[in-house]
């Protein structure tokens, strides 16, 4: 991620809204999205995912509209609202608990350790490691 002036990392505060999506959280932590992560509109989301992650405008627009329509209200969305179960958030994450098992928003260290332990070469994860 570019660390151009104005885009240096700033950790979230307890008042900031964050999602299960590390990419959107990073965009907010680097001020490509408003740092608060709150009250995000279509153009803000679309511009950020296009500029920061190189998504095409049609794909960025589709994802932004989907997020706002399925999780937001009044044409806006807070990052934390993206954790609504069976909207964008879903069971089956490799790093988050399922909703029925507890906190489905924050990374579960136990699951991450299990995932890292599945590496056959100790360097990374291959498709067979993930199967």
List keywords for this structure.
single chain, 131 residues, mainly alpha, 2 domains, 5 helices, globular
Largest sheet: none
Tell me the Rg in angstroms: 16 Å
The tally of domains stands at: 2
Write the element-wise H/E pattern from the N-terminal end onward: HHHHH
Structural category: mainly alpha
Stretches where pLDDT is under 50 for at least 5 consecutive residues are none
Helix content bin: 25-40%
The share of residues in extended strands comes to under 5%
Q: What is the typical, i.e. mean, pLDDT?
A: 91
Principal-axes shape call: globular
What is the first-to-last residue Cα distance?
Answer: 30 Å
Number of helical segments with 4 or more residues: 5
Q: What's the total count of β strands?
A: 0
Family: Belongs to the chloroperoxidase family.
InterPro entries: Chloroperoxidase (IPR000028), Chloroperoxidase-like_sf (IPR036851)
GO molecular function, one term: metal ion binding
Cofactor: heme b
Q: How does this model look, in words?
A:
The chain is mainly α. The protein folds into two domains: 1-90, no CATH class; 92-131, no CATH class. It has helices at 22-29, 42-53, 57-71, 109-117, 127-130. α2 crosses α3. The protein is globular. The two termini are 30 Å apart. The model has no long low-confidence stretch (mean pLDDT 91).
Record the SSE blueprint.
Layout (H helix, E strand, L loop, with lengths): L21 H8 L12 H12 L3 H15 L37 H9 L9 H4 L1
Gist?
The protein has 131 residues and is mainly α.
